[in-house]
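Dock adenosine monophosphate; give full complex structure.
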Amino acid sequence: MSECIFCKILNKEIPSEIVFENDEVLAFNDVNPQAPTHILIIPKKHISSFSDFSEEDMGSILPKVFLAVKYITEKLDLKKEGYRIVNNCGKNGGQTVGHIHFHLLAGRQLQWPPG
Ligand code: AMP
């Protein structure tokens, strides 16, 4: 998946500010932050969107992604004030990058509903 920008990030072909990394997951700062803390968490396996998860990958990869969220929120001390985890899926979901990613937003009062 050499054309995927997030695969290029995880292969260190283009730079990013890495917040967390292990064998399965990478987390890095969003280049266009929508909150004081805006981190993208991705599985290293290229999966295009939430809709493209196989049941097998969902069972093995999603827990690793959310464990990374837990680790990051503890490390950055976000638990007291709270945060939001977002996945945009497909056109109507507002997804612009075709490698599944979860946004972790924190550091300000977030509004609801989203636009
Ligand atoms: P989405 O619209 O949900 O697909 O989110 C894609 C996110 O990727 C946006 O918030 C972009 O700001 C972010 N993004 C795009 N390119 C980069 C990059 N090179 N480094 C970090 N974040 C990026």
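Observed: Helices lie at 5-10, 55-75, 90-93.
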